[in-house]
Structures are given as C-alpha cells and as structure tokens.
C-alpha cells in the first residue's frame, strides 16, 4: 500500500481529500527545504535549481510540471 492508501484507510477519507492532505504536507516540507537550501547557499551553488529540488525532495519532474487544478 502507498502512503496515500494507508491514509485513506486509517481515516476513512475519499481519494480527493487524502490527496489534498498529502499535497498540503508536501507543500510545507517543500517550503521548509527550499528555505534551508536558500539560506545555506545550496541553491546558489547548484547547477540546476529545478534538478536540485526534484532530486532533494525525490519529486517526479513530470508531476512538478502538471497543472494541479
């Protein structure tokens, strides 16, 4: 089971509600990591900021370009 499936099972959530919760949690984590990378100069020294963030957060680059609406 994926983390999203486990979340749905534990709390009895429908798919869209569970997905929104996961997105919210990821967004908070992303912003914290981005802030840390910026303040420590990691982004400045990275060859590609997009590649750095996608690899650092293990986020699929294809998904990052999708429209979330």
Automatic annotation (TrEMBL):
One Gene Ontology BP term is: protein import into chloroplast stroma
Q: Where is the signal peptide?
A: none
Query: Which cellular component, as a GO term, is one annotated location?
Result: TOC-TIC supercomplex I
InterPro entries in the record: TIC110
Protein name as catalogued: Uncharacterized protein
Q: Which organism is it from?
A: Nymphaea colorata (pocket water lily)
- Please name the taxonomic classification of the source: Eukaryota, Viridiplantae, Streptophyta, Embryophyta, Tracheophyta
């Amino acid at each position: 089971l994926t983390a999203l499936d486990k979340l749905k099972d534990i709390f009895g959530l429908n798919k869209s509600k569970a997905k929104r919760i996961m997105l919210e949690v990821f967004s908070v984590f992303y912003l914290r990591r981005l802030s840390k990378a910026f303040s420590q100069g990691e982004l400045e020294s990275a060859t590609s900021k997009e590649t750095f963030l996608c690899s650092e957060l293990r986020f699929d680059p294809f998904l990052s370009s999708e429209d979330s609406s």
